[in-house]
Amino acid sequence: MPTKSRALRKRINQIMEDLRSKDPRRLFRGTSKVSKILRAPAKELEWDSDQVIDAVVKAGAVPLLASFLTHIEDQKLQSEAANALANISAGSADNTRAVIDAGVVPIATLLLESPSIDLQDHAAWLLANIACENCSCVLHAGALAPLLRLLDSLCESTKSNNTSEQSLIKTATWLLSNLCQYTDSFEIVKECLPRLAKLIKSNNEAVLRDACWGVMYMCKLSIQEVLDSGACDTLVKLLMHSSDDVTCVALEALLAIFTNGNLEQKKYAAITCRALPRLRFLLHNKRERTREIACQALSHIAIGSVELVQGLHDAQVYPCLVHLCMRQSHSRGSWLTWKEAVKTLSNTLTTSMFNRQIIKYLVGLGAVTAIVDSLVEIVRNQASIHLCFDVALQFIELLVTAGAKDAEERGDGVNDYREFLEDTGVPEIIAVAALDRVCRDGIGSGSESSTEIGPIANESAHQAARVASLFTYSSPEAAMFQLSRDCVGEKFSRASGKRLLSLPCPVHCAVSWLVSGQKTLNWLQVFYSALSKKHFQ
């Protein structure tokens, strides 16, 4: 056994001797040492934190620490014991269960109303950790009522500079948020909402973050109640907060409204509360994650309502989205943002399929050119192809469908959007990307002789075939066969030839194999298997 491990076991044994003593000084000393050893750096102990907690629990410390919570004549001992138990409850589920089984929850609930601020703080921290593992246990102990009374008293003195009070309100807000997160009944936690609506107006950033999370959890239980509380207006204002952390959490809360809310609720948040101009502003935020969430919110806003699409137009959101679609960074995060931006444009096309002006407006902004150009980048960037290829295909399919409806209304049979896409080489790009997907991900066993096509690659190839059939081909099968044959033979349209030849695609590797005579049979088996009708049924 390493020297440090032996020393640690010896320390734990000494601590247990103190915890079993009847001397109040030794009790406090032993309890303080428990907290200290649980907070010690792993490098110092040669054990990670979970191993140290396990050792303390197995030594029998938890029941003794739990008993110290009842020593009302010694608040320092109570506070230190609550601190140690909070550290233990932050460990594994088994360790949290050991704390619960020691009868700690009802006692900690009573300590929320202790005259000692430090003791209240540690009790709230202890309950917050337990709530993450067993929220119903905390709620059944009646912790919510004293917690709400505590927050009411703290909110009356939010301008206090008392460090202990500031720490307490942060911990109490975190506990409140956890209780909202881990329950599935609005009725149980409905009294939390008025407090959360106040807390999201706090000047304390940590309080704001946890309160915003709490509101988000409440949105998943009852969006209408959240809107009626006035919290939505405050969340929208927080989108302009100086702290990026606060902005991002407020944005997450609003995303819950736009994702789960009905049409009227989305209209209220987007238009009445004026979220749209602030969401547009966040599209330029320096944080990639913030831009991505803002795009997610906008994509949900664009679904199902012409009025909301008009609101996006009036707020000048679409030029910013097209700008994001033009970005061709190789980072995974930026492609996630790109995907959500394109989804917003696709949802706009779906909602406005019969609104010729909106569609022409998007085309005029350069949306189509930006997405087509990005398709090449998607094929080059193999890390993002799974994320973005299908989204780009959806946009192209919707655009060609809209062009067909436009041509039908005019009666001339000319699909301007389809012709534009053909001139820019989109059918060939689709074929190359689909074959790339099959060649890279579709071979089931990875062996040279395998002809099994994987389900993910097959699904994308099928979608690509369907989109390709919207152009000048009689069927999805014919489209994929002809386009793939042209790609292998390097028979590209003049507009797309140079672009396609620059792609580091397995199709072009296959061309070299055909020329050199190597692996020809095996590759052709995979190639024609991918194009066979059975994979497109």
Describe this structure in words.
The longest helix is centred in the C-terminal third of the chain and has 26 residues, at 385-410. Mean pLDDT is 81; it is low at 441-457 and 488-537. The chain is built from 34 helices and no strands. Helix 6 (75-89) runs parallel beside helix 9 (117-133), helix 27 (385-410) crosses helix 28 (416-423) and helix 29 (426-441) runs antiparallel to helix 30. The chain is mainly alpha-helical. The termini are far apart.
Number of extended strands: 0
| Percent in strands | under 5%
Distance between the termini: 63 Å
Structural class: mainly alpha
User: Which term fits the overall shape?
Assistant: elongated
Quick summary:
This protein is 74% helix and 0% strand. It has helices at 3-19, 24-39, 42-45, 49-58, 61-68, 75-89, 93-101, 104-111, 117-133, 135-140, 144-155, 163-181, 186-189, 192-199, 205-219, 223-228, 231-238, 244-260, 263-272, 275-282, 288-301, 306-314, 317-325, 332-351, 356-364, 367-380, 385-410, 416-423, 426-441, 455-468, 476-488, 497-501, 506-516, 520-531.
